[in-house]
Amino acid sequence: MCTLYGREGYHGLFLRPMAAQMGCELVQLDYMTLYRTYRRGAPGVFYIEDVWYKHGSAPRPRHEVPEAFKGLMGRIYPVLGNVQVFYTDGTVNYVAEAPCGKAGLLAKRGEPLVTDLLLPLYLEIGDVAKALIAAKKFYKCGLPSTPAELVEGIYSGRYKAAYFWLGWAPGVKARPNPVLKKALAGFWGLTVVAVEVDMPDSYAYPPPYLDVDWGPYAHNRRLVEEASPLRDRGWMDFVEEVHGVIHAYLHGQVELEKATRITKRIEGVLRDVGEGLY
Asked: Which domain of life does the protein's organism represent (predicted)?
């Protein structure tokens, strides 16, 4: 039996039936353990983020792939996308302006500290050191450690401003990134390492899916349709390099100067961030 390595948590909702369809055993791992298992070359099917991995190939889906994902063909099999969006209750313009304890940013050890905490603050502020300082301030104030906690905080009004992935909270009126003026696409897909397996002939493009009835949230659908990728080649190498440093910095184990020096490479693994950022 083959092994499908995937993310822990809510990802299992669609990974379990996918594993059964392929005749694979599902092993759920935290983000960084999953990525490192893949990098070691363990045989199996891997549910991984982004599109520029050296090994693994993918069959071409029989139906049309959204234009933003055309570059995936032959490299990774499109399974699931998501879109990072911005929320405000109108009392603040940006997350960085929210009062202490009122900013919604996911702060879980591992990759989320980079993509869901540092990255949106960096895009908003435009300076690595200032983004790290803001991240530490919010971290001390108390930040959600799960997507469910973040979303509940938005629904309840605890968070005055937040960044989140639209698939977590489709019923929230979302906005594009306030500085870039566009929503940011993330992407998950399947790739195979040294095993023979029948890949499922289906994929989904960002949840909530484009064929659902969006009702009063039609504005969110436009954000999904217009979202663009931001993380460039080398993003996951960057994540692997800095996520431990950021965690140590947040806990006072690394000085700002060192954390800034190591994290500075973020400028080289982003693309098309817009003229207003730098």
From this structure: Archaea
